[in-house]
């Protein structure tokens, strides 16, 4: 896949950056409307879904994207909306693979990718001196990969912790998003890095974890970490 700026497709709170082998902005916009529509319709009939901070109990048949969010929240021990950004990136990205054999979809720090060649992703960690100094080399030739980052110090997403960055790698982007939130909620200080990672290890489907608080970093899992030269 040729490098270059990622075209942005914006609809309400959803702002996706997509890179593919050909322009797919119009199709991406249609897919955002499709998958957001499933979520919005479900919330209309189950309004408590929007603000639930605990795992959601199944309430009968639901769209696949809702089922993925619910499953991710149940595995990670958080509410289903903790997985919403990752779920939209994942479902839009999976649908885009009908039009292209390679794609990268980024949604507020949550990334779904399927590429023939390895991709290095920098980890943004706010004011930490480690921010964008280290990256993950992600190989997704065989199957798509989800890489999601949460933070207690950067952005507007709800986090109960104090970490500058919690990055989770999983085959499921929805799960990576929910797990990053759940692990981040347990990070009140540097002293909690080891215990938070130990918790993350227990989440079924999590393949790798990186935690950054100030100048401290903790890592676990099937990760290829590379240094980045930022000028």
Write out the strand line-up for the largest beta sheet, numbering strands in chain order.
1-2-3-4-7-8-9-10
CATH topology: T-fold
Strand content: 25-35%
Average pLDDT, to the nearest integer?
90
Question: What does the overall shape look like?
Answer: globular
Number of domains: 1
Secondary-structure element order, as H and E? Answer: EEHHHEEEEEEHHEEE
| Integer-rounded radius of gyration | 17 Å
CATH homology superfamily name:
ApbE-like domains
Count of runs of 4 or more consecutive helical residues: 5
For this entry, what is the oligomeric state of its chains?
single chain
The top-level CATH class is Alpha Beta
Unreliable segments of 5+ consecutive residues: 2-6
Task: State the end-to-end distance.
Answer: 25 Å
Structural class: alpha+beta
The assigned CATH architecture is Roll
**Helical amount among residues, as a percent range?**
25-40%
Counting DSSP E segments of at least 2 residues, the number of strands comes to: 11
For the report, how would you describe the main beta sheet? 8 strands, antiparallel
């Amino acid at each position: 896949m040729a490098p270059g700026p990622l075209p942005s497709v914006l609809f309400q709170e959803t702002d996706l950056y997509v890179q593919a082998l050909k322009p797919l902005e119009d199709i991406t916009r249609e897919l955002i409307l499709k998958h957001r529509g499933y979520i919005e319709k479900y919330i209309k009939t189950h309004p408590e879904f929007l603000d639930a901070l605990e795992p959601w109990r199944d309430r009968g048949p639901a769209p696949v994207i809702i089922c993925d969010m619910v499953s991710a929240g149940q595995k990670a021990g958080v509410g289903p909306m903790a997985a919403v950004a990752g779920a939209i990136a994942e479902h839009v990205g999976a649908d885009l693979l009908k039009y292209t054999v390679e794609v990268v979809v980024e949604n507020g720090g949550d990334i779904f990718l399927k590429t023939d060649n390895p991709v290095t992703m920098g980890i943004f960690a706010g004011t930490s001196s480690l921010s964008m100094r280290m990256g993950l080399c992600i190989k997704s030739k065989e199957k798509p990969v989800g890489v999601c980052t949460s933070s207690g110090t950067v952005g507007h997403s709800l986090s109960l912790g104090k970490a500058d960055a919690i990055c989770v790698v999983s085959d499921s982007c929805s799960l990576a998003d929910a797990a990053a939130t759940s692990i981040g909620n347990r990070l009140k200080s540097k002293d909690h890095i080891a215990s938070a990672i130990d918790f993350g290890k227990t989440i079924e489907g999590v393949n790798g974890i990186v935690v950054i608080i100030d100048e401290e970093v903790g890592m676990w899992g099937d990760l290829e970490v590379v240094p980045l030269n930022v000028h």
